[in-house]
Amino acid sequence: MTDLPRLTEEVPGCGGAFKLVPEDFEVEELPAYLPGGEGEHLYLWVEKRGRDTREVVKALAQTLGFPEGEVGVAGMKDRHAVTRQLLSVPARAEARLSEFSMEGVSVLWARRHGNKLRTGHLKGNRFRLRLRGVKDLGAARESLSRLVARGVPNYFGEQRFGRERDNAEKGKALLLGQRLPQRPDRFQRKLYLSAFQSLLFNRALAARLRAGTFDQALLGDVLRKEDTGGLFVCEAPEVDGPRVAAFEVSPAGPIFGPKMTPAAHVVAEAEAALLTEEGMTLSDFKRGGGETEGTRRPYRVRIGNPEFSPEGEDLVLAFELARGAYATEVLAELLKEG
Q: Are 39 and 113 within 8 A, CB to CB?
């Protein structure tokens, strides 16, 4: 997806190198809630370097003696970073927690709670990124200012599509009932199916950016309320347009599946054309079962509490994004590389 259009295309790239060491990329979850101190689950605040979340989950389960499925995770975190996030394990494992040891991983605190941590149980993430050897601070500042004003195009990042860039292709094959050379496990199957849905969403968002309408209300758009996440179909752009401009609501693109809230009018036609181009129909997504029920994802996401801090030849950026949004998309707007 290296040819994706950018909101700040007319602003030059600022130059600089990113993620030369894990400390150049710090991510800290913003939990939806904190553990209450009692209950049948144990919440762990974990810091890790050079490890992805799935590795930590496997190691915890193995050490504490229960299936991986009993480990609760709110969100997956990058391997090449310093990250802090919540995990949950059954409270019966508390006595064995001291046995857990993994290079690059520390449990900073543990506290009981009543429910298992589930995917999406977080408000978002706070990021701290260091760009080394920045050439044009003015360009970086201008790009960030535009993103703060209009929102970050909410693309799925390239890491979604796998090192070989073939996750989406495998997901499409599964939805068409085709066999893969190697049968995927449950985790891989979910990854492949999600990657194909993500590819189609990125294409829909790219079309809106090229048309200059990614932050406008079109007749037939599905609009998402920023405060509650509620969805409704736009039947009066002249009424909903000012609400989009005020960031009360945002257009929400397709994560295709049978339970996706349908668009209407010309927006529905454009979304249907995406499936036609792939030789697919909406009913094909039923083969994915619970993994491809479908939903809506906002075309833009707000930047919260941004900080812009030049340090010698480096630039340190800090900001918050809603869950599911990619900090690398902010960097792509600044760097204009790839």
A: yes
Asked if 171 and 194 count as a contact pair (C-beta separation under 8 A), the reply is yes
Residues 171-217 pLDDT 10s: 999 999 999 999 999 889 999 999 999 999 999 999 999 999 999 99
In 3D space, the residue among 326, 64, 126, 80 whose CA is nearest the CA of residue 72 turns out to be: 64
At the fourth CATH level, the homologous superfamily of domain 22-126+304-335 is TruD, catalytic domain (3.30.2350.20)
Strands (E), the chain: 17-18, 25-31, 41-49, 72-73, 82-90, 105-113, 122-132, 152-153, 222-225, 231-233, 249-255, 295-298, 300-301, 304-311, 314-322
Residue 110 has φ and ψ, to the nearest 5°, of: -135, 135
pTM (two decimals) = 0.90
Asked if the domains at 22-126+304-335 and 157-301 fall in one CATH topology, the answer is yes
Q: Which of 78, 215, 240, 284 is an active site residue?
A: 78
Q: Which of 89, 107, 127, 119 is nearest to 51 (CA)?
A: 107
Q: What is the pLDDT of residue 1?
A: 43
Where do the domains of the chain lie? Answer: 22-126+304-335, 157-301
Collapsing DSSP to helix, strand or coil, 125 comes out as strand
Structure tokens at 201: 């969403």
Query: In CATH terms, is domain 157-301 a member of 3.30.2350.20?
Result: yes
The neighbouring-strand residues paired with 129 are 25, 317
136 catalytic per annotation:
no
* 158, two tokens: 């390239």
In 10 A of CB 144, how many CB atoms? 24
